[in-house]
Amino acid sequence: MARARPWNGDAVDVSLRLVRGSHPFLAAAARTLADFSGGTVYSPALYAPATRLWEKAGFREHIRLEIMERRLERVALPSSDHTIRPAQEADQASVSRIDDRAFEGFWRIGDLGIEEAMSATSRSVLLVAEDTSEVVGYAVVGAQLGRSFLQRIAVLPEHQGAGYGQSLLAGSIEWATGQGTGTMLLNVRPENGQARDFYERAGFAASGEHLSVLRFD
Q1: Domain of 119: which CATH number?
Q2: For position 59, what pLDDT does the model report?
Q3: pLDDT value at position 81?
Q4: Could you say which residues of the chain have pLDDT below 70?
Q5: Quick one: how many helices (H) and strands (E) in the chain?
Q6: How far apart are CA 214 and CA 18, in angstroms?
Q7: Is residue 40 part of a domain?
């Protein structure tokens, strides 16, 4: 069994998630989707051991993401005056707009990608940052098996540099601590020095592990 969705709203590319099955099944599913969509089929972000089955099915590494981690009882974050709260149904359009404007091309994930990030762990929350009454940023954070995962964080370009990202990160850590998790993990592009510096200032460090997104086309 496998599940597929559009990668985002910008292209004909497809995200494929294997629920169960062999590499011949995965290869057949990928070929069918590639022929039907005319685009590229991508895997989820996978730990190294999980990539072997996908490689047997004809997938090849497209991007590599570094995993950073932070013990939650260390390195307190500064307090903030920004309003950080759980998202409501009425915020969905704002969250979608933020994702479209904060990321380019391949890195946009769209509404279905955000839903998938929310369902990746047994517990999760979508947080939003407000500037007066406008939603200007969001974060997806999940918790499972004693660990928490910062799945996504984004701020509108015109509001970047004003501390909203830091406030969303602090809110994510506060939520994760309340879930009883001791460690938070996130992934970052190795070439994104600005993001790496941001997380290092908040107490994150490279874990020595990575994730890979593979492609079939």
Answers
A1: 3.40.630.30
A2: 98
A3: 74
A4: 74-80
A5: 6, 11
A6: 13
A7: yes
DSSP classification of residue 73 = T
CA dihedral 202, 205, 209, 210 (to 10 degrees): 40
Residue 78 structural domain? 74-181
Are 35 and 82 in a shared domain? no
pLDDT of residue 77: 63
**Cα distance between residue 201 and residue 63, in whole Å:** 25
Q: Which of 39, 65, 91 delimits the end of a domain?
A: 65
Chain segment 35-67, per-residue pLDDT in tens: 999 999 999 999 999 999 999 999 999 999 999
CA distance 80 to 163: 8
Which 8-state DSSP code applies to residue 189?
-
First to last CA, the chain: 20
CA atoms within 13 A on the CB side of 28: 7
pLDDT recorded at residue 67? 97
In a domain, 158, yes or no: yes
55 and 86, same domain (yes or no): no
